[in-house]
Automatic annotation (TrEMBL):
It comes from the Bacteria. This is Asparaginase. Gene3D superfamilies: L-asparaginase, N-terminal domain. Pfam families: Asparaginase (PF00710). InterPro entries: Asp/glu_Ase-like_sf (IPR036152), Asparaginase/glutaminase-like (IPR006034), L-asparaginase_N (IPR027474), L-asparaginase_N_sf (IPR037152). PROSITE patterns: ASN_GLN_ASE_3. Residues 4-160 form the L-asparaginase N-terminal domain. GO terms for molecular function: asparaginase activity. SUPFAM superfamilies: Glutaminase/Asparaginase (SSF53774). The active site is at residue 12. Substrate binds at residues 54, 83-84.
Length: 161
């Protein structure tokens, strides 16, 4: 992998809460800080394009994400995204040929102790380097085909359809 392109769209991974999980805003992307703290030995570039909860990502936003990724010259792309509509965005990105694209996020904000953010990012970084061209979701320690996975909101995890 020459350089990893990271596109950030917001979601829980970047949330900042001001009281008991009700009043929040989407803060600065956390992935660059996480990778820096972990001392990764590869080059990466972060392109922040949205700061939205994924429930508020619409078709126009998905087209912006698709066009941004399609315009990059790197074949390896990691996307941080909210978990509620990650599968829908992944399906839109499937129209981009010749790239390995992995979407990941977190069920708890990266700023929270015990967040799954670092684990999911690590899984996604490994996946984007080793999988063939295509679109994948990296959550809960697994790599998922977007056409065969859903978020189980009640159990707060991803599972096979």
């Amino acid at each position: 992998m020459d350089q990893l392109c990271i596109v950030t769209t917001g979601g829980t991974i970047d949330k900042i809460y001001f009281d008991d999980k009700s009043d929040y805003q989407i803060g600065e992307p956390q992935i660059g800080l996480i990778l820096e703290e972990l001392g990764v030995a590869f080059r990466y570039r972060v392109i922040p394009i949205l700061r939205k909860d994924s429930l508020h990502i619409n078709d126009g936003d998905r087209e912006l994400i698709r066009a941004t990724i399609a315009a990059q010259d790197t074949p390896h792309v990691l996307v941080t995204h909210g978990t509620d509509s990650m599968v829908e965005t992944a399906k839109v990105l499937a129209s981009i040929p010749g790239k390995t694209i992995v979407l990941t996020g977190a069920l708890n904000p990266a700023r929270f102790r015990g967040s799954d953010a670092e684990f999911n990012i690590g899984t996604a970084v490994g996946a984007v380097q080793s999988l063939p061209a295509g679109v994948y979701i990296a959550m809960n320690g697994r790599i998922w085909d977007p056409a065969a996975v859903r978020k189980n909101v009640d159990a707060n995890r991803f599972e096979a359809l």
